[in-house]
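Lab notebook: predicted structure, single chain.

Context: the supervisor wants predicted structures on file for every construct in the current expression panel, including those that have not yet been purified. This is the next one on the list. No modifications to the sequence; it matches the entry in the shared construct table.
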Amino acid sequence: MSDVPLSDLRQDYGRESLHREHLAPNPIAQFERWFQAAAACPEITEPNAMTLATSDLQGEVSARIVLLKGIDAEGFRFFTNYESYKGRQLMDNPKAALLFFWPTLERQIKIRGTVEQLSREEADNYFQSRPRGNQLGAAASSQSSVVANREELDERLAALEKEYDGKPIPLPPFWGGYILRPTVLEFWQGRKNRLHDCFRYRKEKDSWITERLAP
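Prediction complete. Output recorded below exactly as produced.
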């Protein structure tokens, strides 16, 4: 534990500002602007890493880091095990939130919306594009389930390597993709004295309403 009290740990911001005239009319276009800036920043090694927050019908909330694997006018795509804890929560409650935080740029983006499973064709196209080791790992892991030890996982992987030696690995029935269709996006730019710039896009019917929020 650091000798510096937690109450004294703080970072003042002041790299940039964000004004309404800086914003794209559409939040997906604004996201793509900021994402490209993050991808071009050498200090940010995984600009597509995002926190995914989910909850079940009992109100139990869970969050973890996943990787964004697609973005278009429809929404944000990611892939995972449908039988994992997040998969089960999304089955119960298809509302979720995403958070991107790029501290080097002093920026974060919060996104809320509804989640749907992608088609098996789209999931298979992505699965077959992954490195073979990643395909085997996905097939070997019953994500979020209890395992006795590491050796159990290694044995499953070895068995699959033998079974599919020289053959393509099929998409596991329990693995696939999701799309989060956004209804609210918030763009946050750090500013001095904690008076940050924050703009919210919220969807009303087929239009986006843009509002400045108090930080």
